[in-house]
């Protein structure tokens, strides 16, 4: 059916024909797809000169890419640092060590400082131990000047030990450890650090007996040297009395002998007191024989005064008693060393106690520091 005002529609396919080569002649020379013509011509078609805006957009794009990579690297670095920091936390047996780590760091620094002060305290304890040995040596030699020096040095050490220990106990509140301190600490700090805290306080407490031990050693050595001095004074004065008696000056000899006997009385009183605490049988025996000699001489000289110098039967019997008493006395003063050794029994125990405290402190420091103290 024809449409008005429109040309008639051709029959489908009636006017179609195969495309021939001339049909493309109007569009230029034919393309050689297999030849070299494509390359040169295509380069000409593909060249495109970038404008200023294009270059700016390219620079900005590359900059943003670089910034993105830098941001990613920074995130990775911070994340790694966090992992390392978390790995460096002090091990703890608590359920949540991350909750105590910050507080542990502060307390650990405090304990490290206390341990360094404790190491300096040990130096004074070591010195006191050496002074205690010097005291025993000087006593055995009856060297009173050396003893006095040892006493003075020892007290200097004790004063320093007491002051250092008191300062540490106050700073760490160690006196409250057995009551409330440990309970309070475990609420804030890790169990391992609380245990270390307790070891520090225990080490400080190990020096507490040293003052009493040293006081006992000084008292004992003073007592021993006093007894030795009494014996030496007696022998010296008794020698003067004998000299007077050989000159026939018996009244004067008796006065001297009474002075000498007073020293033996003093020494005997000390021996009686010491016998309650330690074995001083040698000292007691020696003092008893010395008193027997004094009594025999006193009787002889009094009889000589009564007989006006005549040798009577009573004088002869008294002289025999003097010889018997003299035979019981030691031939030298070597027995004094034995006596002093006996009297040093309690002092030896004091010295052992000092050495024990010294060893406990040394072991505690070794456990707390692994054998090395940094920053002393």
Describe this entry's structure for a reader:
There is one protein chain. With about 375 residues, the protein is an all-alpha fold. Helix content is about 75%, strand content about 0%. The chain is built from twelve helices and no strands. Helix 4 (about 145-170) packs antiparallel against helix 7 (about 210-245) and helix 7 packs antiparallel against helix 12. The longest helix is centred in the N-terminal third of the chain and has 44 residues, at about 95-140. It is rod-shaped. The N and C termini lie far apart (about 120 Å).
| Helix percentage | over 70%
SSE string: HHHHHHHHHHHH
Low-pLDDT stretches are 10-48, 81-95, 371-376
User: How large is the share of residues in beta strands?
Assistant: under 5%
Secondary-structure blueprint of this entry?
Layout: H1 37-46, H2 52-87, H3 97-140, H4 144-172, H5 177-185, H6 191-205, H7 210-246, H8 250-274, H9 281-306, H10 313-327, H11 334-343, H12 345-369
Helix pairs in contact: 3-4, 3-6, 3-7, 3-12, 4-6, 4-7, 6-12, 7-8, 7-12, 8-9, 9-10, 9-11
